[in-house]
Protein: SAM-dependent DNA methyltransferase
Organism: Trichococcus flocculiformis
Amino acid sequence: MTENANQVKSKKRVADHGEVFTADREVNAMLDLVKDETERIDSRFLEPACGNGNFLAEVLRRKLSIVKKRYGKSPSDYERNAFLAVSSIYGVELLSDNAEECRERLFNILNEEYVLAFKKKTDDIYSDSIRYVLERNILCGDALTLKRGDGEPIIFSEWNMVSGNMVSRRDYRLDQLLEAKEEQISISMLGWEYDNELKSFIPSPIKEYPLIDYRKVREHADFKSQ
């Protein structure tokens, strides 16, 4: 039986929020149209109404399949590239329970794939790093207003592996990104510069963080800009 075969949680949620999950068959058919991108470990995806993660879960599975093929013999290389795969996936969801379910679902997919590859679970430090990235990347908010539930703008973090285990983080307002390129459906090549692929200028980050080991990214939660 496929995961999330039931497309509706309740009739009330359909009536109140129009909540209907996309079936696995349709998810795979649509992702097959951009197959090359789904198999690039660092290719960024943003799902503006992610529900409990049907699209993002399949994107992560495809990325992790490539990670396993390339790095399945080295736990350290696998972990670094699996972090990159997770950190390239973004979602906005109106309902908080769905957003939390999506985060947990993506975390469990990574953990399960890691167990299959290395016959053990990820350690607590790595797991906490992945959970922090998911907290930053899968957000509860309204993709129409581009605001969170508290009325503040939706802010996403861009993660880039720089050298070895060091990762950079820069935060961007989603509304500013989409103003720069209204038809943009994925976050890619961020920074205030002219992008030949997007054919537009894109904004500078609202906050930048010092380089840090990817296994310690939760320490950014305590970082204050000078």
Remarks:
- The first strand starts at residue 45 and ends at 47.
- The longest helix spans residues 96-118.
